[in-house]
Design goal:
Length: 91
């Protein structure tokens, strides 16, 4: 497993990108979350095992819900399943 390291400036940039509250960014994160589940073969049950409520896990992947994982949740998921957090922000 390759260890990812970020400078403080890179972390701040990531936080700023992720926390933009416009609808397009939220839709992008949601779309990427769904893609990540498929691409990395992650089952919702596995995310629930990280301590997230069933309701939250399923609302993150349904189109009718505006919910997305918060940055710390996305970071926990990406760390647990060994992929870069920036996958959530890919265009």
């Amino acid at each position: 497993m390759e260890e990812l390291k970020y400078t403080q400036a890179e972390i701040l940039n990531l936080i700023n990108q992720y926390n933009i509250k416009d609808q397009d960014t939220r839709k992008l994160i949601k779309k990427n979350y769904i893609r990540i589940l498929e691409q990395f073969n992650i089952q919702p049950k596995e995310i629930m095992e990280l301590g997230y409520a069933r309701h939250n896990v399923y609302s993150w992947s349904t189109k009718v819900s505006p919910n997305i994982p918060m940055l710390n949740q996305a970071l926990t998921i990406s760390t647990a399943f060994n992929f870069n957090i920036e996958e959530f922000l890919l265009q």
